Structures are given as structure tokens and as C-alpha cells.
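Continuing the batch. This is chain 6 of the set; chains 1 through 5 are on the previous pages. Same settings as before, nothing changed between runs. Recording input and output for traceability.
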Amino acid sequence: MLTSQRKKLILEKLAAEGQVQSRALSEWFNVSEDTIRRDLRELSAEGRLQRVHGGALPASAAVADYAGRSQLSIDSKRAVARRAAALIEPGQIVMLDGGTTTGELVKCLPPDLAITVITHSPGIALQLVEHPRIEVI
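Output for chain 6:
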């Protein structure tokens, strides 16, 4: 079997089962575990899966760029953002990272909310410009 065929089958098995194990794959293909590890390493380098000890998991959504990630699971992100925004009370100090879900959270904040936000993200800081009562650090 060609390497490309084996990699294709590995990805199909990963999609169907949600994970693959090196030992099981080596037995299934009747090749060494080193061969499978090399295949998994190459597929990981291509961003097609995520290597873990003993096998692989589907590629994380985080391998996509920010614009691509912002459109993944948008309904779930908005639901989390609405719930998180409801927990924030005036006067609090809130730390926000630069993720796509926190970008949705900023959209859910009331325009007159008076809080302090600490962030390392220029994107989040820019979004908060629309909230004149929020101090951004």
C-alpha cells in the first residue's frame, strides 16, 4: 500500500472513530509502529490531525486562522458569550483573552457597563472602544 493511501485511510478512520491509536493502526496496516508514527507526524505537520501520546485526535479548530475560527460553531459561541456577559456586574475587573468566543462576549456587553477589562489582545481592546465606561488595561 502506498503511503498516500495509508494516510487517507488513517484520516477516514479518525473521522469515523474520533481517535486512532498507533499500535492498532500498525496491526491494521501490518506495518511497524514507527511507520505509523511517521505518517501521523506528517499528517500533523499538514494540520490534518493532532498527534497525542500513542495516537492522534482530529485536528483542532484552532489550526484555522482567526477569521475561519470565528465562523466555527457560531451559535455555541454566542450562547456562551451571552451567558458569560450576564455574569459580569458593574465595578468588576474582568480578564479577556483574544479568542473568538471572547470577541462574541464583547458584543454582548451592555454599552453603559462600567467595568475594567484586562486583555493582551489588541482586537478585544479595539472592540471595547464602543464601550466608553469600560476601562481597558
